[in-house]
Amino acid sequence: MQTILAFILVFGLIVFFHEFGHFIFAKRAGILVREFAIGMGPKLFGMKKGETLYTIRLLPLGGYVRMAGEDFDQIELQPGYRVGLILNDEEKVEKIYLNQSVRHPNVLFMEVERADLNKKLWIEGYDEEERLVRFDIARNAIIVENGEETLIAPYDRTFEAKSLWHRTLTIFAGPLFNFILAFAIFIFLGIFQGVPTNEPIITEVVDDSPAAEAGMEAGDYVKSINGTPVKKWDELTDFVKENPGKELSFIVERDGQQVELSVVPETVKMENGEKVGQIGVMYQSPLVKNPIKAIGYGFQQTWEYTLLILQALVYLIAGNFTLDDLAGPVGIYQYTGEVAKHGFFTLMYWTAALSINLGIMNLLPLPALDGGRLMFFGIEALRGKPVDRKKEGMVHLVGIVLLMILMIAVTWNDIQRLFFQ
């Protein structure tokens, strides 16, 4: 149960922020958002608020924001359709009933001759007395088919009608909000768990080490080495590593007084053959709860995790790819359960790392991903006109198929690793 709840929290938070990025920028651009979905597949829960249907779906494979004007969104009334019309006080059509009997005292039946539900908003056809009539359609008119209501989308409210800049922002906002989520989580951790100070304070001195022989003690605050000021623990370790076997003059602060110590780092040979210095001290950074430092910590951690994931990605692209290096929903579920055992704060670090990972993966210029769509926007900017929608749609369709094949392979590998090893 703990693993299930942890997975729902992590998955839900990451997907929600990603899709919320798309959603909020689509709304700001004036695009009609038909559905905001968390998960894929059959609907478990749905709530209609305003123009948008908010749903939670069965399969934890992502989510989506369905915008007017995208593929499979167009509604067309073909000649010969028999429809029922309801007019508003301005004699404009506010409801169009398709393929069903209508019980309404003011319904007008029509056999459609022509219609424009997208740009000019009108419908023309023959009434029950076989007269050719024409009505304007309200911008907020509703199509009712088999009991399902769908709001029409005037062209200016569709995704494709918006400027290249607004379309780019709407797509880019999903990955962007994943980075924002990670940044916010790191700030939260910095405020409530504390920010490591990284100060050069000796926590422990190893027995019989060069530091112990020189008289260094736990609690010593290193101020300088060979006259060079030291402000961070990383600076101390770098100085020591670079000077194996060389005598170093340490100035440390102890009980309010400065003490000078001479330490000769031991020479240690690494696996790659490199020789580095070690003096035998250990460090555990104290945590400081400071909101201002927490903001800087948020930037630092987001940047460092981003670099780490990018390095791993370059490693995979360089030819070191195996299925064991990837994890699908099953693998993430397993790892989330293991991480959750170490407490809430550790789970939040894991959530931030996954959010950054999702943001980076979605920015890759691959078909069907946000990065693939941004790539086509880049081509549009260079050409001065959009790529043919059918051709772009075919590229994305192929990308979806390939991604699904990869997802199935990764998921099967996760299942084998989890249950059969």
TrEMBL record:
Keyword Transmembrane (UniProt): yes
Names of required cofactors: Zn(2+)
UniProt KW keywords: Hydrolase, Membrane, Metal-binding, Metalloprotease, Protease, Transmembrane, Transmembrane helix, Zinc
EC code: 3.4.24.-
TM region positions: 6-25, 169-192, 305-323, 344-364, 393-412
EC category name: hydrolase
GO MF entries: metallopeptidase activity
Entry annotated with the keyword Metal-binding: yes
InterPro entries: PDZ (IPR001478), PDZ_6 (IPR041489), PDZ_sf (IPR036034), Pept_M50_Zn (IPR004387), Peptidase_M50 (IPR008915)
Main localization (coarse): membrane
Gene3D superfamilies: 2.30.42.10
Domain called PDZ: residue spans: 201-267
Top-level taxon of the source organism: Bacteria
SMART domains referenced in this protein's UniProt entry, alphabetically: PDZ (SM00228)
UniProt xrefs under CDD domains: cpPDZ_EcRseP-like (cd23081), S2P-M50_PDZ_RseP-like (cd06163)
Membrane topology (UniProt): Multi-pass membrane protein
Protein's cellular compartments: Membrane
PANTHER family for this protein: MEMBRANE METALLOPROTEASE ARASP2, CHLOROPLASTIC-RELATED, REGULATOR OF SIGMA-E PROTEASE RSEP
Family the entry assigns: Belongs to the peptidase M50B family.
Protein name: Zinc metalloprotease
Species of provenance: Ureibacillus suwonensis
